Amino acid sequence: MASHVLHALAAAGIDRAVVVTPPSERGAEIVAALRSDAPAMPLAFAVQDEPRGTADAVLSARQLADSPYVVVVNGDLPLLTSEQIAQIVDAPTADVVIATAHVDDPAKMGRLVRGSRDELRGIVEFADASLEQRAVREVNLGLYRFRTDFLWDALDGIVSCSAGEAYVTDAVPIAVARDAAAAIDVGAPNGRLNVETLSDAADAEICLQGRIIDSLLNDGVRIRDRRAVWIDATARIESGAEIEPGTHVRGFSIVGRNARIGPNAVIEDASVGPESRLESCTVQRSRLGAGTEVGPYSTIRPGCEIGDRVHIGTHAELKAAQLGDDVQLGHFSYVGDTVVGPRTNIGAGAVTCNFDGTEKHATVIGADVFIGSDTMLIAPVRVGDRARTAAGSVVNKDVPDDGNAVGHPARLMPQRAQQDGEQRP
């Protein structure tokens, strides 16, 4: 949620942000998460040692906020837009400018208090509001612009006089008394901006998905059924790509131009090259080159580097594997902790046996190799360039360049050149 807020602030032209976090491990987790998805502006972090309310939270950022005006925004507003922020930033000069909206379901948001002539008098928190005040539909959205000198003086007094939690909204009546406060209705077309419950979070996700998909469609991405895909805000999908129903594009994934993903594919923190075709498969934290095909029910686990024009059949699994360009990998195969050279063919059902019960071991397969169906490669083992294994072979010793391994366990047979009557040095 806070990441969405930061990106909206950056899009509105805010040039620097200070995030207030709790102390210790929880704060460190928040810092790491926000840094991983940092918008295009510098971020600083302040620590609020004890949860003493929003007034104390803002004060903890004082040393890092050194501009004449500051925008203060709650971190639980994932639906906040740059357009709403801009209205507050561009408002006339005042000690405080408050963003408000009229909503059908104000829930536990603070209510605007107005006088008989509709003049602003303050904000009342839900817990402190009377039944009459709770019936008010104009709510405080949790977005403010303060004149900095006014803010620090006001909050110092508020916190020092409070025995419990102190709210940043307690500064509003002080500004009202100086005739230096304004409230601007910035609108909330999707209802409330804040998230208070799991139900609110689910509703916000639906709204954000609509925004993400609209943006992608406008950029030339083809999405057949907007209701049947899931695309994270951090994902990047290039123009011409096609996202089929049932597909999830998660995390910091990148999908290249004219790639087709799905139906029913899951791409998580992975890069998929242009012109690739992925169907009903899972790809996690790996990179796939251009023109690569992955068949149904295959899984590419973290750490894989797949070259260009690679074909991976159905029900295959790869883990920490490097496949060169133009590799063909048959269905029902497992390739783990393996380097495969270009133009190599790995037959259906082939397995790199990388685990000996205690440790993982590597397999190296050279270029232009033919691995027969149901071959088992007992790592650590190396298969040289242009070598081949017969179907069903169990290879527990290195195979030299141009070698030919046959049997269970495999025996080295005459080289392919000798079998074919070819003359090779």
Structure, briefly:
With 425 residues, this protein is α/β, with parallel strands linked by helices. It is 20% helix and 29% strand.
Please give a handful of descriptors for the protein shown.
single chain; UDP N-Acetylglucosamine Acyltransferase, domain 1; about 30% strand; twelve-stranded mixed sheet; alpha/beta; 9 helices; Spore Coat Polysaccharide Biosynthesis Protein SpsA, Chain A; 14-stranded parallel sheet; about 425 residues; 3 domains
Number of folding domains? 3
Question: Distance N terminus to C terminus?
Answer: 66 Å
What CATH architecture of the largest domain do you see? Alpha-Beta Complex
Mean pLDDT: 92
Helix residue percentage: 10-25%
* Beta-strand content estimate: 25-35%
Number of strands: 37
Alpha plus pi helix count: 9
Give the overall shape, derived from the CA principal axes: elongated
Instruction: Tell me the CATH topology of the largest domain.
Output: Spore Coat Polysaccharide Biosynthesis Protein SpsA, Chain A
Superfamily at the CATH H level of the largest domain? Spore Coat Polysaccharide Biosynthesis Protein SpsA, Chain A
Which parts are unreliable, with pLDDT below 50 for 5 consecutive residues or more?
Answer: none
CATH class of the largest domain: Alpha Beta
Largest sheet: 14 strands, parallel
* Structural class assignment: alpha/beta
User: What is the C-alpha radius of gyration, as a whole number of Å?
Assistant: 30 Å
